[in-house]
Design goal:
The complex is a heterodimer. Chain A is an all-beta fold. Chain A contains no helices and eleven strands. In chain A, strands 2, 4, 5, 6, 9, 10 and 11 form a seven-stranded mixed β-sheet that branches. Chain A has a four-stranded antiparallel β-sheet with strand order 1-3-8-7, with no helix packed on it. The radius of gyration of chain A is 13 Å and the shape is globular. By secondary structure, chain B is mainly β. Chain B is 0% helix and 53% strand. In chain B, the strands form two sheets. In chain B, strands 2, 4, 5, 9, 10 and 11 form a six-stranded mixed β-sheet that branches. In chain B, strands 1-3-8-7-6 form a five-stranded antiparallel β-sheet, with no helix packed on it. The mean pLDDT of chain B is 93. Classes of the chains: A mainly beta, B mainly beta. At the A-B interface, β4, β5, β9 and β10 of A face β5, β9 and β10 of B.
Chain lengths: 116, 111
């Protein structure tokens, strides 16, 4: 079974530019999450999709971040325009079927974003 | 909002020594999960605790959930170099899939 895949693995951009991250969850996983880890700090929740619907986007930092999951399969996270504080590792995770507590998450390898 | 505090941030041990990381919350947790992230890798699920006072073991790893469901610990007996990485606790948030992660404890093991 293929795991959660993320692309690109690394991205280096300049402040003010746009970057789009992609996540392909495990096939059949309706729940898709975006998390971010800034250097040495905790892994912070950004948002949660159930199929194509945003279930919880309370962790999105501001309106420079836009997440989509058209068709309920892969998801994209766009940062426009990027700022220095957006640097970090962006993880995507998925879990199977219903959004209930106690579901373990399967994480992708992450995208290391560096904004210069 | 809900926060989970995890200590210590770093731990260096000699191979064969024991290691413990602790998570604490000011609020009662519905459940707690533990993840391990190897250097350069991604978080991988280890275990989930749900019941008050629950203790679970995985070989040399022992996981505990406090009686009040406000704290948890992970103890590794006789560490090995393969144990290196960052260990995260993560608390479930109500009936959603959202997890609140602790800051992580990075373990270094000297051979």
């Amino acid at each position: 079974e293929a795991g959660v895949t993320q692309f690109p693995s690394h991205s280096v951009i300049e402040k003010g530019q746009t970057v789009t991250l992609r996540c392909d969850p495990i096939s059949g996983h309706d729940n898709l999450y975006w998390y971010r880890r800034v250097m040495g700090k905790e892994i912070k929740f950004l948002l949660h999709f159930v199929k194509e619907s945003k279930q919880d986007e309370s962790g999105m930092p501001n309106n420079r971040f836009l997440a989509e999951r058209t068709g309920g399969t892969y998801s994209t996270l766009k940062v426009q325009p990027a700022e220095l504080e957006d640097s970090g590792v962006y993880f995507c995770a998925s879990s199977r079927s219903l959004p209930m507590a106690n579901e373990k998450l399967f994480f992708g390898s992450g995208t290391q974003l560096s904004v210069l | 909002g809900q926060q989970v505090m995890q200590i210590p941030q770093y731990q260096h041990v000699q191979e064969g020594e024991d290691f413990t990381t602790y998570c604490n919350s000011s609020t009662t947790l519905s459940n707690i999960q533990w993840y391990k992230q190897r250097p350069g890798g991604h978080p991988v699920f280890l275990i989930q605790l749900v019941k008050s006072g629950e203790v679970k073991k995985q070989k040399r790893l022992t996981f505990q959930f406090g009686e009040a469901k406000k704290n948890s610990s992970l103890h590794i007996t006789a560490t090995q170099t393969t144990d290196v990485g960052t260990y995260f606790c993560a608390a479930g948030s109500g009936n959603t899939g959202k997890l609140i992660f602790g800051q992580g404890t990075t373990l270094q093991v000297k051979p």
